[in-house]
Amino acid sequence: MGQLVLSARIRGEATTQCEFTMTVNGGSPVTPTAVVLDQSIFTVPDASAQIEIQANSFEPIKYGTVAARLEIDAFGSIQTAFLPADWEPLTVLPSVLGLTAVMVVHFSPLRDATEQARVSLEQTGTDYPGAPPPGDMSFRSSPVPLPPTLYSPLPQATDTSFVASPPISDHAIQVESRTVTPFGDLLVLRLPGVGAPQLVAVYWPSAVPRGPGAPPAPFLVFLRPTMAQNVTDGFFTNALDRHDPMTGDTYPWGWDYQFFGLLRPLRYMEDPLLVDPFAKGLPYQIQASGRNVVLVLPLPRVAGQPCDEITSFADAVLLQEYLEEIQAFMFRRAGNFSFGPIGRLGMGSFSSGHALLSCFLTEPANQTHPLFLDTLQEVYLFDPHGDQAGVTADALTHVTAWAARDSARTKIARLYTQHDLGQLGPLLAGLGVTAGAAPFHAETADGRKSLTSLPAAAWQSVAQRLHGSVPYVNSGQVHQVIPALMVTDALRRSGF
User: Fold this and answer.
1) What share of the chain is helix, strand, coil (3-state, %, to 5)?
2) Is-contact 250 238, C-beta < 8 A?
3) Residue 210 in contact with residue 231, Cβ under 8 Å?
4) Which residues contact 179 (CB under 8 A, 6 or more apart)?
5) Which of 80, 303, 352, 455 is the most core-located residue (most Cβ within 10 A)?
6) What distances in angstroms separate CA 300 from CA 102, 226, 267, 310, one per listed residue?
7) CB neighbours (10 Å) of residue 425?
8) How far apart are the first and last CA of the chain?
9) What is the pLDDT of residues 24-82, one digit of tens each?
């Protein structure tokens, strides 16, 4: 008879907060013959057998149950038949008692929900927006084929507008036509037991190492606009949208949440300057920037107050925990079972997403946390409320207060705005830069604080020159195109 020795890790540390059971050839589950510290020891046959293993966490909502399956052949050789990425590779050691098989499981609070996200975007079924009648919601139909190739791999963006480097010269916005293919993995991960965000999309560029020996990964958390502002227009909570059959809740699997909350920020659906500035193409902008950083896109939830739309990500303790868990999750998929702190962190926000960012920057409990003080090194504001200079000034006040704390010499803060020169006075003062003739880019001597002025007239000029169909005649159109192009510029100027 041989032995099977099982142990578990939570956040890289050995834990006894779990129970292992084993089933042989479909029989009844059995418990260990012995438990020594964090190791559960089972006796296994030395003849042909099928072994099912269950690792049951004592926190089932957060960590759940992780299974594996082994096979023992007629010669007593043990091999894996089913081994998810949460398990380290099987190790078989000879001993005086026969073969000893050693296995280690890593409990994770994350679940791969990419396939469920894909299915939620199918344009069929009685719970698709507009069906059954009388709801005509055909305007929600997507201009991209759905499904099957939704998340990964991302399709190539051919002859697409990207901001040039530098973005402004000769008193004009400079763009270039490029063909860009994001190389990397794109997943949707679920955070069980969390009110919001329950889902995050993660884009991990291939150029960011994650195999054994990989260094801590750099991260960019991007906060899209708040959801509640669109409810009065029939979005996100519409009873015709996909919903939980038990609760009637459209979060997080409703088509609106999936398409507007996740897919459209991730994809370019037409040229972002000339045709469709609403799609943000964040992985494409990362690729175009030449910087290697992991994108985390949380899915906010409609709530009465902005901070309630993204509760756990406004808490430095929880945000650090989940970013470290995302890193470990992706590491394990590459055969790397190390657990540790993340690398450099940036945060970006668009429109009312600045309110979500402010929830993090102004939370009193965050003010002494290392993630807030040191790990977070870059913050980008993309046109927070493009037609309300006072709201933009409030957002910038929160950013400048953060930038002055602890590792102030190395922190980067950038603002991209359409405000005219008459409104830019307090914004310029907050960043310590001097205005030029719009459009302009102004930065401090060390280049770490900057304001980029991108008024409507400048967008009109470049769009007309390139024969685009978006006229940029109102602040709303300019509001959308700024993050659709300028994330590339922020990353080019970054420390990533």
Assistant:
1) 30, 30, 45
2) yes
3) no
4) 156, 157, 158, 159, 160
5) 352
6) 41, 7, 18, 5
7) 13
8) 54
9) 999 999 999 999 999 999 999 888 999 999 999 999 999 999 999 999 988 888 999 99
